[in-house]
Amino acid sequence: MTLKDRVQDLLGQVAGMQAQNAEELEALRIKYLSKKGEITALFNEFRTVPSDQKRELGQMLNQLRQQAEGRLSEMREAMESQIAKAERLDLTRTPDPIQLGTRHPLSLVREEIVDIFSRIGFTVAEGPEVEDDKHVYGMLNFAPEHPARDMQDTFFIEKELGLQKPTDVLLRSHTSSVQTRVMTSQKPPIRVLCPGRVYRNEAISARAHCFFHQVEGLYIDKNVSFADLKEALLYFAKEMFGPETQIRLRPSYFPFTEPSAEMDISCDLCGGKGCSFCKGTGWVEILGCGMVDPNVLEACGIDSKVYTGYAFGMGVERIANLKYRVKDLRLFSENDVRFLRQFESC
Ligand code: DAH
Fold it and tell me: Is there a smaller number of Cβ atoms within 10 Å at the N or the C end of the chain?
């Protein structure tokens, strides 16, 4: 192959040079342009070329070298700019939009309950979750041997052996404990709503949990009657579940109220005709209520000959179930965003 042919051949090779990374690029430079490179070798041979051919061949060789150098630096620049692009931080760029959270369904329901009762004069009162036996049971007229005090129901934190003592420390098992706190620290008229978390020693399942939420209501004044209780609860049911909602009160028993009742609302799934949700009865239970037992008033230092009062207590999860048809109670505390995102955004 003549020198000219070899130059031509290398021109073709140089035009097709490809490198994926810096090492390959360097290998190409060594192959063609280093001291022992193929193009350098041609320059060395050029010295032996007869002078009449030098002009044309010289031009061709220079062109070859320029093309090789040009192509190599082109590839180097492309590589460098790609690396720079990958590493570059553009601090002026607006961030990706942050996804807003949603309100927890239990918060939504609790706030709705508070909102409805606040329109008829109730204010919010709170009490401790770690309580003593006296405020959770004793002052609420629970007999010492009442089964609700049992270890099976109540989480004790400090407990003396034998029958319960007023000073035993426990996790409150209902928000009725806030009643006793309010009645001992305020004078009637009292009209409070006590929302909060309660604890019971239950096995966790779709229908029961070891903690849940309640809203307690208490109204103490002169001449408060059962009719006032019924009126307030009917108003609540219609506000919460719609104007067609009906209520019914069934006699029941709670140590802290006398008389006591449980309230059902008409099933809004079947309109009261009876379906699987209401187990064919047309009614679903939503709360317990009654007239505050005189023993409770007296235990809290309120004269039961002057004052009467009513109380009620409901489960927030229960109301949320009726409103949102959440079949499994555990969903409320598992914080699965797929569940939570279904509710009203912040
Ligand atoms: N404390 C009761 C419970 O946890 C609920 C309750 C029933 C509260 C009747 C009341 C009431 O104030 O009057 O099951």
Answer: C
259 preceded by a cis bond (ω within 30 of 0): yes
Ligand 1 atom at shortest distance from the alpha carbon of 173: 4
Domain ranges of the chain: 3-88, 105-343
Mutate to test the pocket of ligand 1, among 256, 308, 314 (most ligand atoms within 8 A of CB): 256
CA-to-CA distance for 124 and 195, rounded, in angstroms? 8
**Of 140, 99, 82, residue with least CA distance to 297:** 140
Q: How far is the CA of 314 from the centre of ligand 1 (A)?
A: 7
**pLDDT, tens digit only, all 346 positions of the chain:** 788 888 889 899 989 999 888 899 999 999 999 999 899 988 888 888 888 888 888 899 899 999 999 999 999 998 888 888 877 777 787 777 777 888 999 999 999 999 999 999 999 999 999 999 999 999 999 988 888 777 668 999 998 887 778 889 999 999 999 999 999 999 999 999 999 999 999 999 998 999 999 999 999 999 999 999 999 999 999 999 999 999 999 999 999 999 999 999 999 888 888 888 888 999 999 999 999 999 999 999 999 999 999 999 999 999 999 888 888 999 999 989 899 999 886 5
Ligand 1 pocket check for 216: Cβ under 6 Å: yes
For residue 7, how far is its CA from the centre of ligand 1 (angstroms)? 100
Q: Ligand 1 center to residue 232 CA distance, Å?
A: 16
How far apart are the C-alpha atoms of 175 and 214, rounded to whole Å? Answer: 6
The vertex-57 CA angle with 68 and 66, nearest 5°, equals 20
Please give the distance, rounded to the nearest whole angstrom, from the Cα atom of residue 28 to the centre of ligand 1. 86
